[in-house]
Design brief:
Chain lengths: 428, 77
């Protein structure tokens, strides 16, 4: 599978009469977006707002962030199983509006939505403050059930991302990167002396608004399986997730998974990146056992020397993480786990709910319990009231002057467990 | 909580879904339960079946409480 990703660098977003990309500026026809979202009669009103880097804007409660992409060559279309048929994606050529994103907000769906500040101290903690965001403020009709609301908002975001991506179809990209993975045996043959490495991605699948979809399939109903890493660059995995904002993988994260990109970067040089395994995080112990057994068996079967395992969310998925780690280590395969920490506000508590001596190589996205004060912003897109009740917030989080005191947990992407953030620590 | 109560000399049965975490934190008597969102029930069962399920779990926990243990023990049945 060989995929060319053509990045069209977007440096600004503006409203315009026609949706198009012109000289690095994304022009957006507001009315067309509104009518697109209003096709779903679950929404009684839709507002479209723009939020650019450095503007004094707070977006909350954020549900998902999605990067606009369009398939220009090769089979299938972006977001297979949702916006396209289920043809296999991940080959040919895809254009990306790099620097732009669709952000969905409106009445809060679940209690674990997030905050994106476009400037100030909060902006440093979320990668989405650096993007030119087209924000959808979607208001559901009265009585819409939570799960239907989640689905409707999820689909609205995907739809608008595909609509905007289409504007990049005939634009010459500023840069083109090529990602290629060979059939397993050929890959091993090509780089016989490099250590064989796979990526094990754990997908949040606890249900009750904590779900991820693969080619349209609800991940909690899946067994661990292999997936071509370029498939995810075409949107094979999407978020339907209202888990804590700091460490949920938005659809944007899935499209730009930095572990996949870094493994490709080192492929053929330091390592042989031979494949990717996806596994889930369910709420029954038997499911946890079965899925981690299966992930370990697949890692053994493809014959790798090492794996990188990433987690999504926290709490009981810590057990899935440790099960994956321990079972794969016991096959004689080295593991590195990527997680984050809930170590208390002073950082002194146990970081994970589960642990094992075999988990001896750990990358952390940071401590989600750290408290931060976010100063007031000139403009709010969405509603600030939910910050008192979202995960990471508490009664009194929202102050009278509009400033907010929250744990990092409430900031979208702050302690991301794919490493799509900038938190780091130094020892002295 | 399990450990602190036991430290005070009162035996504890930890009823929980994620047994590995219970083992990691050091509970001595563990009764596995149904699922994380509904540890002591199962909404997919009808009322009578669910009542029987719940009663079974509580009885198993009480039996565990009466059982002498030398090491961490999971009461599967």
């Amino acid at each position: 599978m060989r995929l060319e990703l053509g990045n069209i660098l977007i440096k600004d977003v503006q409203f315009g009469e026609k949706t198009k990309v012109d000289n690095g500026i994304l022009f957006v026809n507001k009315e067309e977006i509104i009518s697109l979202v209003r096709e779903d009669d679950n929404f009684i009103s839709v507002e479209v707002e723009l939020a650019r880097p450095g503007e004094s804007i707070r977006i909350t409660p954020v549900k998902d962030v999605i990067e606009p992409r369009v398939k220009v060559e090769g089979p299938g279309g972006i977001f297979p199983g949702f916006m396209s048929k289920v043809d296999t994606v991940g080959s040919g050529r895809t254009h990306v509006l790099k620097g732009a994103a669709v952000v969905t907000t409106g009445k809060v769906v679940g209690f674990q939505e997030g905050i994106i500040d476009m400037t100030g101290p909060g902006a440093d903690y979320t990668p989405f403050s650096q993007l030119n965001n087209v924000v959808l403020v979607c208001e559901p009709k009265d009585g819409l059930k939570q799960h239907d609301h989640e689905r409707a908002l999820r689909m609205a975001g995907l739809k608008v991302a595909v609509y905007l991506g289409e504007a990049g179809r005939n634009v010459t990209p500023n840069e083109v990167n090529v990602y290629e993975s060979l059939p397993l045996l050929k890959s091993i043959e090509k780089y016989p002396n490099l250590p064989k490495v796979a990526y094990v991605q754990m997908l949040q699948s606890q249900g009750l608004l904590h779900d991820t979809y693969v080619y349209g399939v609800d991940a909690k109903q899946t067994l661990s399986t292999l997936i071509n890493p370029t498939d995810i660059m075409d949107g094979a995995i999407i978020s339907g997730n209202c888990v804590s904002a700091c460490d949920k993988n938005t659809t944007y994260h899935h499209l730009n998974n930095p572990i996949v990109h870094d493994l490709f970067e080192k492929h053929g040089k330091e390592i042989n990146f031979v494949g990717m395994i996806i596994t889930n995080e369910n709420v029954y112990l038997a499911d946890k056992e079965r899925s981690s057994n299966w992930a370990a068996n697949l890692a053994e079967y493809i014959g790798v020397d090492g794996v990188v395992i990433s987690q999504e969310g926290f709490g009981n998925p810590d057990t899935d993480l440790i099960m994956n780690c321990v079972k794969i280590e016991k096959k004689g395969i080295k593991t590195v786990i990527v997680t984050d920490e809930y170590a208390g506000r002073d950082g002194a508590s146990q970081s994970l709910a589960d642990a094992d001596p075999l988990a001896d190589a750990v990358v952390t996205g940071g401590n989600a319990n750290e408290v931060i004060e976010l100063p007031p912003m000139d403009k709010i897109i969405g509603y600030t009231e939910p910050v008192n009740s979202i995960a990471g917030g508490f009664d009194g989080s929202l102050r009278e002057n509009g400033s907010i005191v929250v744990e990092l947990q409430a900031i979208t992407g702050a302690t991301n467990e794919l490493g799509f953030n900038k938190l780091s620590a130094k020892g002295f | 909580m399990v450990k602190e109560i036991e430290r005070a000399g009162i035996p504890v049965v930890h009823m929980c879904t994620v047994v590995p975490i219970s083992l990691t934190v050091g509970a001595n008597r563990i009764v596995p339960t149904i699922a994380i969102p509904h540890p002591l029930g199962n909404p997919s069962l009808d009322k009578a079946e669910e009542k029987a399920l719940r009663r079974g779990l509580v009885e198993r926990a009480l039996e565990a409480l009466e059982t002498e243990v030398d090491d961490q023990t999971v009461f599967e049945k």
